[in-house]
């Protein structure tokens, strides 16, 4: 074993489970001690308000919100005064723990940097929200790709197998550091997110002038817009799937305004993509986070790629579909096995997708090489690229 990341993975997976469970159960209290009843929440958004509510249920009244948004300073949110970071540090830095409650897609926030800034202001105890979620797992977990760390260890064999599929050092590093963040809350090892364009990393694979691009989770056309902005964006067909009615309206408006020679090559479908063709409940939000769920208030048609794209022979498939990626890949099995399209699949919506998705694709063909790229900080927009060997640049 001579790969540093393989060694780090083995060290992680060989940790004693009893110590993992202790970290889950006792980590937050240990980190905030001796200020367990004196908490300042850094971040007055949804996450901060949610944590404040849970603290109050346990009999702890947050001392304040601290927030970088100057427009909030001096106001009250849920009855809690919002202070500037400097004011909060001056008043509470030596007598309270600061829980950083910022974690959202599209944010440039990085806990390690925020922690340094708060400590420089005089805050002695700065803690991430993650161990708080572990302590109150019944209330908060799983959420996105976070879950209780000990659950990961039951997947050790699959995790090792997926790691071995990673084709370069960047991917192996991303794989291991993502796992370490989820299990031991190690932020410092997370590498900076890549500067390559999401879904279109120019250094990774060759684009075809006859691309048949399938955009699963097309949102308002943002990915199509990025595709068309590329200098060599010639293509034969774009097939875009978006089930949310509000998003689909925006998507249709965007595509409808394109030049006719481009617009006529784009097919839009107000449908979800899944394992099979069926009607499903769907929670519409008008954002990029709409998703299939049993209590959704809207019924949508979900289709499989194998059912609806038999004649198009996709050459490149992107999926960002809020956790339905595994089902959608199963529904595209014949297409993948026969056509070997490039695959760009989001792996940050479910705790197990980091390893399950590359293993599923590998089970369909051994001619893929796998790359893992983090396009945003702290695990957001983590994409697995499966590239057939004949289209590799690297």
Q: Can you put this structure into words, describing what you see?
A:
- By secondary structure, the protein is α/β, with parallel strands linked by helices.
- It contains 17 helices and 17 strands.
- The protein has a seven-stranded mixed beta sheet, with helices on both faces. Strands 3-4-2-1-5-6 form a six-stranded mixed beta sheet, with helices on both faces. A four-stranded mixed beta sheet has the order 10-13-11-12.
- Helix 1 (4-13) packs parallel to helix 10 (169-184) and helix 9 crosses helix 17.
- The model has no long low-confidence stretch (mean pLDDT 93).
Q: How far is the N terminus from the C terminus?
A: 24 Å
Unreliable spans: none
Helix content: 25-40%
Shape verdict: globular
Rg value = 23 Å
Strand proportion: 15-25%
Mean pLDDT over the residues: 93
The description of the largest β-sheet is: 7 strands, mixed
Structural class assignment: alpha/beta
Number-wise, the strands total 17
The number of helical runs is: 17
- Across the major sheet, the strand order is 9-8-7-14-15-17-16
